[in-house]
Automatic annotation (TrEMBL):
<dbReference type="GO" id="GO:0016887">
    <property type="term" value="F:ATP hydrolysis activity"/>
</dbReference>
<dbReference type="InterPro" id="IPR050166">
    <property type="entry name" value="ABC_transporter_ATP-bind"/>
</dbReference>
<keyword id="KW-0067">ATP-binding</keyword>
<dbReference type="GO" id="GO:0015418">
    <property type="term" value="F:ABC-type quaternary ammonium compound transporting activity"/>
</dbReference>
<feature type="domain" description="ABC transporter">
    <location>
        <begin position="3"/>
        <end position="234"/>
    </location>
</feature>
<dbReference type="InterPro" id="IPR017871">
    <property type="entry name" value="ABC_transporter-like_CS"/>
</dbReference>
<dbReference type="InterPro" id="IPR003593">
    <property type="entry name" value="AAA+_ATPase"/>
</dbReference>
<dbReference type="InterPro" id="IPR003439">
    <property type="entry name" value="ABC_transporter-like_ATP-bd"/>
</dbReference>
<keyword id="KW-0813">Transport</keyword>
<dbReference type="Pfam" id="PF00005">
    <property type="entry name" value="ABC_tran"/>
</dbReference>
<dbReference type="InterPro" id="IPR027417">
    <property type="entry name" value="P-loop_NTPase"/>
</dbReference>
<dbReference type="GO" id="GO:0005524">
    <property type="term" value="F:ATP binding"/>
</dbReference>
<comment type="similarity">
    <text>Belongs to the ABC transporter superfamily. Nitrate/nitrite/cyanate uptake transporter (NitT) (TC 3.A.1.16) family.</text>
</comment>
<keyword id="KW-0547">Nucleotide-binding</keyword>
<protein>
    <recommendedName>
        <fullName>ABC-type quaternary amine transporter</fullName>
        <ecNumber>7.6.2.9</ecNumber>
    </recommendedName>
</protein>
<dbReference type="GO" id="GO:0005886">
    <property type="term" value="C:plasma membrane"/>
</dbReference>
């Protein structure tokens, strides 16, 4: 799998005229990598992810997955949102199975893949439960299982733990790393949480604000296999300080007219 974003621009029309959300974005993600894009509000993170997912179209530039241009949504890209987006009337298993059903996967194979990925995310015992019976972290595990069940080439994650409390968020970060290692899934995740980006990813793209551009690409090399305690290590803090400096350098450029921005930015 090779994801490539070349010279990507995105503009929106607002009451005050044209607004450039993303400008000259260039990035790449290779098979098996875990990459994060981090930026403040207004940096176009969600817009970038929506464009890669095929949920919106760029004003200019191109997005390629294995050399094929992205022109819309496809099973090669799985998506996990911050909100759980589960169907409340469906059981956990039915939610996970839903995408496979839309793809026309035979019933027996759907059931097998659903059972496998529920086991991967540790929810085999909740297959018949409804979403209202689950905690926030469990709901997000279902959403991840649903995305993985279609066996996408890349998993796209839009601040998936942003709505969780601190303890659950840390547990879910560790869980996601374990899933990534065990399935060798390629992951591209956006977040405003600098510590989360450093903890999870092998590379980070730091985005500037308004318009969103790639300010710097950072390789992350922590001294040992990631666990929550690594966040107190001096090397981790050095990465955090560097990313924070990059984000703060252009903080003065952020517009105060946030009401003009589309909600996806």
């Amino acid at each position: 799998m090779h994801l490539e974003v070349n010279q990507l621009h995105k503009q929106f029309n607002t009451r005050r005229g044209s607004l450039t959300a993303l400008k000259n974005i260039n990035l790449h993600i290779e098979e098996g990598e875990f990459v994060c894009a981090v930026g403040a509000s207004g940096s176009g993170k969600s817009t970038l992810l929506r464009l890669i997912a095929g949920l919106d179209t760029p004003t200019a530039g191109e997005i390629l997955v294995d050399g094929m241009q992205v022109t819309g949504p496809g099973p090669d890209r799985g998506m996990v949102f911050q909100s759980y987006t589960l169907y409340p009337w469906m059981s956990v298993a039915e939610n996970v199975e839903f995408g496979l059903k839309l793809q026309g996967v035979p019933k027996q194979r759907r059931r097998q893949q659903t059972a496998y990925y529920l086991e991967v995310v540790g929810l085999s015992g909740f297959a018949k439960a409804l979403p209202k019976e689950l905690s926030g972290g469990m709901k997000q595990r279902v959403a991840i299982a649903r995305a993985l069940a279609s066996q996408p080439k890349i998993l796209l994650m839009d601040e998936p733990f942003g709505a969780l409390d601190v303890q659950t968020k840390e547990a879910m970060q560790q869980f996601l790393l374990e899933i990534w290692r065990s399935t060798n899934t390629t992951v591209f995740m956006i977040t405003h949480d600098v510590e989360e980006a450093i903890f999870l990813s092998q590379r980070i793209y730091v985005l500037s604000s308004r318009p969103g551009t790639v300010k710097q690409e950072l390789q992350i090399q922590l001294p040992s296999e990631s666990h929550p305690q690594i966040k107190r290590h001096p090397v981790f803090q050095q990465y955090k300080d560097k990313v924070m400096r990059l984000l703060c350098e252009d903080g003065h450029k952020v517009s105060s007219s946030l009401e003009d921005l589309p909600l996806a930015i």
